[in-house]
Batch of 3 targets.
Target 1
Amino acid sequence: MRFKRSTWASALVLAVTAVLSGTDDAAPVSDDDFNSDVATLVFIPMEGTVGTYMNSLPLRESLEEAESLGDHAVAVLVFNSGGGMLSEIQEMSDVIEEHKGEIRIVAWIESAIGAAAMTAITCEEIYFMPEGHFGGCTGFYWNGCSYRIVSREELEQVLFMMERISERGGYDPLIMRKMQVNWFALSADIDADSVVQFHPDDSGEHIVNPDGEILTFNSQTAMRFGFAKGIAATEEELASLLGLTQWQRSDVSEQIMKQWRETIRAAERQVPEHIVKYMQALSGAGGATATGQRLLGEARSHLDALRDWRQRAQVVCRMSNITEEWLREQDQILRELAQQD
């Protein structure tokens, strides 16, 4: 799915701006007050299940809209997710990496667990909310019917993928590995300049996470071990940490994400309904009788609806095994039924 991009003037929606040094109050602004020479914070909600509600398609659209606001735009990926599909991580990481050269992208963590954390680590700047937590990246795969834990060769593939993604963000791969597996201790030495050196055993002065446990950072441990750039409870505090004394706020990407979530919610409700109604109609479709012809028309209508949903929310259809091949097979079945006397 790709959303229709609006024009620059209509796409820009500014809700909070003109936060000056020493001023806590934010003033409402209109489009006419937009200043292309002032930093624009574009907050992008990274919420819900990775793969469905958190997906590379609306993320790409959101970053493109952020870029359209000028050279001083900063995309803030606000993570609040318990994880989801491993298959979406590489896609989202690629989108973030692609746009890094065009716009400053930072992560702001309320909750990033599993696949959400594995995506966020692509960002070179990670900030935490005071209650934020990040990690717990044990992997599961969706096999079409249920989730199963990643093991053996699949686990090695995921570990290798996350080494590369950790390097994109500039993080020691040992951090993410300890968030994925529990078969080693992670320790660290911190020098006088606060430079952290991690060790895949207990030889360091500080034990980051003991053998037998999966690592999850909270805001304090993330700061202690140099993983987080800072802790911010509000947008104003985050802007200060980003070095911005004057800034304006756009919610254009929040609107994109809201539209995507509404589409996915509708798909999760309607796709199963169309599948059931299609199969019911199919069971009596065909032949020369009025009932058979009516049911054939109903089956065609539900199949067309499923084809439309595959275009709009492919990830939901994939979880219900609505593939292009399946759609073609059903088309052939309906054509054959239509030819029956």
Note: The first strand starts at residue 14 and ends at 17.
Target 2
Amino acid sequence: MNGMLDRLLALSRAGGPDARYYARTRDGWNIALYRYTPRRGAHATPVLLCHGMGSNRFNMDGPGTTSLARALHAAGYDVWLIELRGAGRSQRRLGPTGLFYQWTFEDYVQHDAPAALRVVRRVTGWRRVLWVGHSLGGMVAYGLLMTPAADGVAGAVTLGSPGMTGVGHLGLDRWVALRKLLRYAPPRIPTGTLAMLGAPVAGPVAAAIAGPLRDWGWTDDNFDLETARFMMRYGVEDLSRSLLREFARWYAAKRMSDRYDLFSFTDHLERVRVPMLVIAGSHDGLTPAHDIAHVAERLGSADKTFLVAGKQTGFAHDYSHVDLVLGTHAHEDIFPRIREWLDTHRSDEDAPHRGARRASARADRAARSPRGDERPAGARTH
């Protein structure tokens, strides 16, 4: 068992991010950002990768070939990974982080994502950034692109990111029916600790929940036990009770609305104008393809593409939810399509000119001082 974990660690550390930065939000969080600095001579287009709910950067930077981050870096991109508040190294600046597990979706949209974009644009000098989000990370993109911050985004890719109108599953129905009991749960629900404790018995756990695992995680031919064990050990985070209550409310109402139920993100998808690639899993029972198709149809983007990842639509394999980025065959089936779409939507017009390059170099040096708006923690691999 220890040998297997050592091998997974070795895989994950190979060619990991070379720097960690922090983006400071207006409400007191330091949002962690990890960078794969582009090699000399690469086109160096910045792309920001955002993880799903209850996860961290490893969602988009898994072990071995299950790393979208390393695949895009190899293709010449300047790759940045965000860890939203409460995930990974992101920390509350004022007071213990554990006392502030009271955030909702809007905090990601209004604080974390804009702060991260500011850092990436300032350090790289690029006018606009590409965005790739899995599940919640794509939902954050929908919300972000309804705001003025959309001016800093050249295009976005979402994977398994619903609008909540058509989300439904028998297992979730039973859980959501008990959502009022969440008020008695602790503000910080220890899902990360539970997953870590379960990692040594990942095999029996996977066998015991084979049905939900296929619906919400991996199809059978995309499942790898070592990857699942790695994610249980390093890629699962504790959850915010307030965020879970918000998602349960959305599930019951079939719409995404703010904490006061005054603004519905679902009802204003036409405000999204940037180019979009929207990907759904053919066998995803958590965020079904028909719901994501509705999102794609409603988007106001003139340039938008909707793909269902499955054998019937020309993919070599069927996909569920997690395996869209962490599946055994995602690097063969999914990653090349994302890269090709990004390649056609990156623009040298957004690249910094000579003077801006000098300014961005100064910004990077300033960022390495704790007095700056953002500060890297030096070299940091997995």
Note: Residues 1-13, 368-382 have pLDDT under 50 and may be disordered.
Target 3
Amino acid sequence: MVKGGIYLRRLRVLIFWFCLVCSSANLAAEESIVEKGKYLFQAAGGCGCHTDTKNDGAFLAGGRPIKTPFGIFYGTNITPDPESGIGNWSDEDFIRAMTKGLSPEGKHYFPVFPYTSFMRIKREDLLALKAYLFSVPPVNQKNLSHDLILPFGGQYAMLFWENFVWSPKAFKSFPEKTASWNRGAYLAQALAHCAECHTPRNLLGALKTEMHFAGSKEGPEGELAPNITPDEKTGIGDWSKVDISYFLETGMKPDGDDVQGLMGDVIEFGYQHLRDKDLDALAEYLLSLPPISNELQKDSTEISKALDY
């Protein structure tokens, strides 16, 4: 009996330590995926459209007005609040929204929400991003109704758009390119969704692929989005790789001027937190793009001001 009692106590101790180790490992894994998700969130520019910074709105609680040629959209609440946010979303709900533009109820989101780029994000990265979003404080704040120009505000219009206008393309890596170039391409095309602002759209709201990254006069919030192809006259062709990396980290342009507006928010809440190797990867990718001449302003002074969008 004595020996049996000793063995039983030892077994209980072993079970206790085994459970403790497993619990610690699970906690560490959970913290790890949240940290990964936070970094991916920052690589996406900090999702500034979902925080009404001008009116001291709560973090990611929505309400920020986004002016477009199709009307005014308001950023939605993406905090984990179960009533007004995304707190009740499953993993599949989140992935469906990010890759297909569909709500859990099957409603079509407007492409001002850049699922047209986010659909290129890897599944494991999407799940990490969701883990981070579910770690932020929930805020109970109802979403505002968009103020759109007819007929763009209807679900039938979106059903038509997604089936006949949008041409979804998965991210494609190129083995003949460097690992850094492919990383930069993934960041620019998927997470940072650069094309959504820096590529002009046609009358139906589709990106003009022949003008990829060449800038748009009708960028987010009614501001001009500059040409970021390496065209020497109208783009960033005279910027070095270091110039681009430094700009994305600090908001300072080669001429010493600093960026303002939405791009300033993107850098402050997003890109400035990226690792140097990712900033360099983005610069490498952007400088490899075909240069496209797209005169968005009348003179070089106005082009420089445009970079303050």
Note: The first strand starts at residue 65 and ends at 68.
